[in-house]
Design the sequence.
């Protein structure tokens, strides 16, 4: 609550009569702050001990920053004053005042106030005396004014007349000093509103626990060795509520670094916990590092330390800024680790590393026994949350159902019988609040008659187990009493809520389940002018704290009405259901899950941004249905949510759920083998799991993915064969075939290429038949488009004779289908994505082929694809797939600009690469177990490194090395975890080649040896891949490129035997490229590769001392120039190709000159000069072209006319 008053004045009415001295003092304080906000709650009306007065005073206490006590003997004797002070103490922490919200004006001598035995004061006054003694250690908290009630008003008047006596000047100085201290404290309290954080508000019924909060405060602030405070206790005692209350009470102390609540249940890595801070609202300006893609212990440790360094820097920077504004603020940050259940999360080493940061405070909640905690420092800094002390429990009852003094003994006896168990006390207090006709004595009598106070220990049970069993029995019996007071409607709603995840009960979903058994609670059954019985029931249950609002969903989606239920209450409710009703209740949840699943499946493809918030609560809802009650519908629902989870940075959970779905369907299918639906569900879930395994890429995942997809295919084929008219079975079979093709193509083992082609062709045949039979079926059309794309990719990659034309035809047909679907569904994000992917693939084809007009066509396709991808990513900022699509599109466009090399292309390429890398880093950090995200990051780094190598400006060498080394590290990890994954091996080889290129170009000491090692390791892998994939054009090209790189190194090094070694690898590379170019005469990339090989072999031939290879060299250079010229002419405007043609002309001219053919050399020179004059301005930025451009200048000086 925002403060409405700066000061609440608590005083005894007798001390303001008849002289008005307290009133005069308050008016003096107010006048000193006339030019600034300074509101005082000062109740001058006659006091009547009725509820209206108490409500008004209670509101004043809640809405004031400071409690100003005018302490006198009259004050201590006043029951009303004592009530005000005791009430304020209950609110002090909740008002974020810490332990410093009281200021004391001692206006009459109170004998023995600050020393002497407490028993000289009556029991009712001792709390005030104790607090005064604790809080008056510094003068700024207490001002002594002798005989003020009788003389204070006159003194204020004298001050206002500015009488000049020494006594008055001293009084004025003392009052001013007190006021200044009070003002400073008010300013500090304003820091509460400046404190960032994600800590939820504590419960409104939180009372007491002052000793526990003080202990936690001491552990976090005074014990410099331990900045970790651990709060432990049984369930239902309020551990989380306590640390949240602490965070709120001392919010001002954490105004610099903030207060951040992090759930740690099930987590065993500190890196997993702290990674949740990244991108937290309020922490963006901290620029926290993202978690690396590696999941090694070393990487996690480095990430944790880097994050803490950056968080500490952020905390200190904010503290300095607030200090400059005039606040007295220390650099402190609070992290709450809620519900620690894995002792290994904080080992002694990790706890010690956290202790190295005195600005960092960590509060932990746990149910674990302190002796089971991983670190001795945690065991020594524990705060036990046991049963509520009697006085605190009485305060809680008083807050819920105030009781008169004569009922205090009965209330105390109830607390004694309940053992101070917080949840039970709150339930009883709520019961009495609702049933006001039941007195405390009546309720005590009932408890005594129903024997709720003992439980027999079972053999071999530990004391903790006995306590838990006792609590469960008590809760069950207390709950029975509460349930007996509920209406049928309220009981139905509460019972239904017990079916939901405890902290994610969406009210609309709750109603839909309730309606299945209570039709009269449906919205359309509400009669006009009458209250809605369902809304009335939920309101009652919320007021009784049985279904309080859900903090988790309120933070996620504030506009959605959501409730929560204590897990122990939900479990107790489920345990009392009649056995014959259990299946029906869960069946209602499954019906809801099925309906929501169908809705989510449809909307996720069309408009994922609108339903992304549904994914987590829906997954928890479906997963909560026990397997024994699931006939398959919840397994289907869980299968639907797997893909959205994997796209919302929850890849690990998606994989776990996919495994659960497979096991559920497997058990069901085994029990009902004749069920076609269950067999189909098993096939679909296996296919989904296989795809996730392939994407994850952990150890053994490749084999597991293949096994899953093969089993899926066998089931689908059997179902399709049993019923040839079953469209869904045919579609399932085509999907399984497509997945198998992808796996074969990725593995690249012997025979995999042929197997992949067969799978793709069969899938395409099925999808063509289904699309033809259902021309208006958008899903069938989309399946056909996907099949065409897969087949196009295969043919483009294989590169055999005629493959280029077949690939283009497939891409164009796919694009036509996707354009039609997108036009028919302009608001369908899935259709838009399919179109973007098709455009991207077509652009890649054009860029590779390099025929006339292909450059412009590729750019047009890339730009349209990027425009769609960016629009989808901006509209769906939580969608990892949309972000990945954007990253891939940016990389492709960067590649295009880098290769084209026109004016401005270098800057455009760099911008595209950097944006792509930023996205890839974010996705890899959010999904550390996602192999695809790691591969994308490795590729992004590799492409950026290649850009820096080509540009080679100042600093580019270091930037390229850093990017290539990081890329190689990722690629090595992925390849090591999947030794049978051919794609992972290829990506490792590509990374090695990139690093070798850098070393060779840099030429520092040791770089030649490093480059050779990288090239040789890369070549070895490429040879193996090409050997097992003899028909794979991509594998053959990779091998030829690797041979060429090694030849370049040998030629540059020039050691003994290097020339012969270079010639050998060049000739092997040339042989491969001749074969590829012959098989693909329209493939520009193949022609370009062939030209490069011809030139390398030719130049070595010219250096042959015997001259026996001169004719061959000349023929090779002439052939190479023919390819270069054809490519440059077909792609007019591509500077890279034009530059390569000029260099080829230069080589041919040199060869003619060496061989003494002056006329032919002159002819070549004229062609060279003409080309140079055309492209001069675009060649000038390239240092390698300067010597040739100088020849053009000399020729012009000699009379050459361009």
Sequence:
């Amino acid at each position: 609550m925002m403060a409405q008053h700066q000061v609440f004045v608590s005083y005894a009415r007798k001390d303001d009569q008849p002289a008005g001295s307290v009133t005069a003092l308050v008016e003096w304080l107010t006048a000193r702050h006339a030019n600034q906000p300074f509101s005082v709650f000062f109740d001058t009306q006659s006091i009547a001990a009725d509820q209206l007065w108490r409500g008004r005073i209670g509101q004043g206490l809640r809405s004031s920053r400071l409690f100003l006590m005018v302490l006198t003997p009259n004050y201590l004797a006043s029951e009303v004053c004592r009530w005000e002070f005791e009430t304020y103490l209950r609110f002090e922490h909740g008002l974020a005042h810490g332990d410093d919200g009281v200021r004391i004006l001692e206006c009459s001598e109170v004998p023995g106030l600050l020393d002497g035995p407490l028993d000289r004061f009556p029991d009712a006054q001792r709390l005030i005396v104790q607090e005064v003694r604790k809080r008056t250690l510094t003068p700024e908290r207490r001002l002594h004014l002798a005989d003020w009630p009788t003389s204070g008003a006159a003194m204020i008047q004298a001050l206002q007349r500015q009488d000049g006596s020494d006594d008055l000047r001293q009084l004025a100085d003392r009052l001013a000093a007190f006021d200044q201290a009070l003002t400073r404290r008010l300013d500090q309290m304003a820091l509460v509103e400046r404190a960032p954080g994600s800590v939820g508000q504590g419960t409104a019924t939180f009372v007491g626990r002052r000793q526990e909060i003080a202990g936690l405060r001491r552990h976090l602030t005074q014990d410099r060795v331990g900045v970790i405070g651990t709060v432990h206790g049984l369930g239902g005692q309020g551990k989380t509520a306590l640390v949240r209350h602490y965070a709120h009470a001392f919010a001002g102390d954490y105004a610099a670094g903030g207060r951040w609540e992090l759930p740690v249940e099930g987590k065993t890595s500190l890196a997993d916990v702290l990674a949740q801070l990244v991108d937290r609202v309020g922490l963006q300006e901290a620029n926290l590092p993202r978690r690396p893609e590696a999941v090694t212990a070393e990487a996690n440790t480095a990430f944790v330390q880097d994050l803490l360094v950056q968080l500490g820097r952020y905390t200190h920077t904010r503290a300095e800024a607030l200090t400059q504004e005039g606040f007295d603020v220390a650099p402190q940050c609070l992290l709450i680790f809620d519900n620690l259940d894995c002792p290994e999360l904080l080992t002694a080493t990790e706890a010690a590393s956290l202790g190295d940061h005195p600005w960092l405070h960590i509060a932990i909640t746990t149910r674990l026994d302190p002796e089971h905690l991983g670190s001795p420092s945690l065991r020594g800094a524990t705060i036990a949350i046991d049963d509520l002390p009697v006085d605190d429990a009485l305060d809680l009852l008083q807050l819920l159902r105030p009781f008169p003094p004569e009922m205090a003994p009965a209330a105390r006896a109830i607390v004694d019988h309940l053992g101070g168990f917080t949840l039970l006390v709150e339930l009883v207090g709520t019961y009495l609040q609702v049933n006001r006709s039941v007195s405390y004595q009546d309720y005590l009598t009932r408890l005594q008659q129903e024997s709720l106070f003992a439980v027999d220990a079972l053999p071999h049970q530990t004391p903790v187990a006995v306590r838990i069993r006792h609590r469960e029995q008590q809760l069950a019996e207390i709950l029975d009493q509460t349930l007996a007071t509920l209406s049928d409607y309220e009981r139905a709603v509460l019972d239904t809520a017990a079916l939901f995840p405890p902290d994610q009960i969406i009210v609309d979903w709750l109603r839909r389940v309730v309606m299945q058994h209570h039709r009269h609670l449906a919205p359309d059954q509400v009669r006009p002018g009458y209250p809605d019985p369902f809304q009335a029931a939920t309101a009652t249950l919320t007021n009784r704290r049985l279904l309080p609002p859900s903090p988790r969903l309120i933070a996620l989606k504030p506009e959605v009405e959501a409730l929560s239920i204590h897990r122990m209450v939900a479990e107790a409710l489920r345990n009392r259901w009649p056995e014959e009703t259990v299946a029906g209740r869960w069946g209602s949840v499954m019906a809801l899950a099925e309906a929501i699943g169908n809705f989510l499946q449809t909307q996720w493809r069309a408009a994922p941004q609108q339903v992304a918030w549904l994914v987590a609560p829906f997954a928890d809802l479906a997963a909560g249905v026990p397997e024994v009650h699931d006939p398959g519908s919840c397994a289907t629902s869980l299968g639907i949510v797997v893909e959205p989870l994997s796209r919302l940075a929850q890849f690990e959970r998606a994989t776990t759920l996919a495994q659960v779905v497979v096991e559920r369907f497997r058990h069901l299918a085994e029990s009902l083998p004749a069920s076609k639906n269950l067999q189909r569900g098993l096939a679909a879930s296996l296919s989904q799991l296989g795809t996730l395994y392939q994407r994850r890429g952990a150890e053994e995942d490749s084999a597991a993915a293949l096994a899953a997809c093969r089993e899926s295919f066998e089931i689908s084929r059997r179902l399709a064969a049993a019923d040839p008219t079953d469209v869904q079975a045919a579609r399932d079979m085509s999907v399984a075939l497509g997945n198998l093709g992808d796996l074969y193509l990725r593995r690249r083992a012997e025979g995999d290429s042929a197997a992949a082609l067969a799978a793709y062709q069969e899938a395409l045949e099925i999808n063509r038949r289904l699309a033809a039979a259902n021309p208006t079926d958008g899903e069938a059309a989309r399946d056909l488009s996907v099949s065409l794309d897969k087949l196009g990719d295969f043919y483009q990659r294989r590169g055999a004779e005629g493959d280029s034309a077949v690939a283009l035809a497939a891409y164009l047909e796919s694009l036509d289908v996707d354009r039609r679907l997108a036009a028919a569904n302009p608001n369908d994000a899935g259709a838009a994505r399919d179109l973007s992917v098709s455009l991207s693939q077509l652009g890649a084809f054009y860029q590779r082929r390099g025929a006339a007009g292909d450059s412009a066509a590729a750019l047009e396709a890339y730009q349209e694809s990027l425009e769609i991808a960016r629009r989808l990513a901006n509209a769906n900022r939580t969608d990892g797939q949309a972000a990945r699509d954007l990253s891939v599109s940016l990389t492709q466009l960067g590649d295009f600009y880098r290769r084209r090399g026109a004016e401005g292309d270098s800057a455009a390429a760099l911008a595209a690469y950097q944006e792509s890398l930023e996205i890839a880093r974010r996705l890899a950090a959010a999904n550390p177990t996602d192999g695809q995200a790691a591969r994308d990051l490795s590729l992004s780094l590799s492409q950026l490194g290649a850009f820096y190598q080509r540009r080679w400006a100042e600093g580019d060498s270091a930037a390229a090395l850093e990017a290539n080394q990081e890329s190689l590290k990722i690629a090595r990890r992925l390849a090591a975890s999947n030794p049978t994954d051919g794609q992972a091996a290829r990506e490792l080889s590509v990374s090695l080649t990139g690093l070798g290129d850098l070393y060779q170009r840099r030429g520092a000491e040791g770089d030649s040896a490093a480059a050779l090692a990288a090239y040789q390791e890369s070549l070895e892998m490429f040879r193996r891949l090409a050997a097992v994939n003899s028909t794979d054009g991509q594998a053959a090209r990779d091998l030829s490129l690797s041979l060429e790189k090694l030849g370049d190194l040998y030629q540059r090094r020039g050691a003994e035997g290097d020339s012969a070694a270079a010639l050998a690898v060049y000739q092997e590379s040339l042989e491969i490229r001749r074969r590829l170019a012959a098989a693909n005469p329209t493939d520009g990339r193949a022609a370009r590769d062939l030209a490069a090989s011809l030139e390398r072999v030719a130049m070595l031939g010219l250096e042959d001392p015997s001259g026996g290879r001169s004719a061959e060299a000349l023929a090779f250079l002439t052939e190479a120039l023919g390819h270069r010229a054809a490519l440059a002419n077909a792609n007019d405007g591509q500077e890279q190709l034009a530059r390569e043609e000029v260099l080829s002309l230069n080589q041919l001219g040199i060869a003619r000159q060496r061989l003494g053919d002056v006329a032919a050399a002159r002819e070549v020179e004229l062609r060279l000069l003409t080309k140079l004059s055309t492209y001069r301005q675009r060649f000038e930025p390239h240092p390698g072209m300067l010597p040739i451009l100088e020849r053009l200048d000399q020729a012009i000086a000699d009379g050459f006319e361009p």
